[in-house]
Amino acid sequence: MRSRLVWMAALLAALVSLGAAADINGKWKAEFTTPDGTARVNTFTFKVDGAKLSGTVAGGQDESPIKDGKISGDDISFSAERPFGTFTYTGKVSGNEIKLKVTFNDQSFDMTAKRVTN
Q1: How much is the pTM?
Q2: Separation in Å, CA 28 to CA 11, 32, 53, 78, 82
Q3: Using one digit for the tens of pLDDT, what is the confidence trace for 50-84?
């Protein structure tokens, strides 16, 4: 009976750790090319509170708050009202990188954000 309880506790701990949100708090930078060939840089500032993701997306001359931000394990999603309209971001965290798919109107493109370390 005792070994069964120990095994169940270990299994529960493993499942909880799999569902825990990745630690993406802080600044991340993405250098990318838009579908029209323009080189751009975005800086993301993320704050995680449970499954809620908040923060900002900053471009060359603007900064927008993150809306509808969610994080579950290594998966993230959010949107932001940028100068050209609403951008939707979905991505996967892997260590110090986040691979994002960005959708705007009927276009989409990929970018990789890297953690900014000071």
Answers
A1: 0.80
A2: 33, 13, 14, 15, 17
A3: 999 999 999 988 999 999 999 999 999 999 999 88
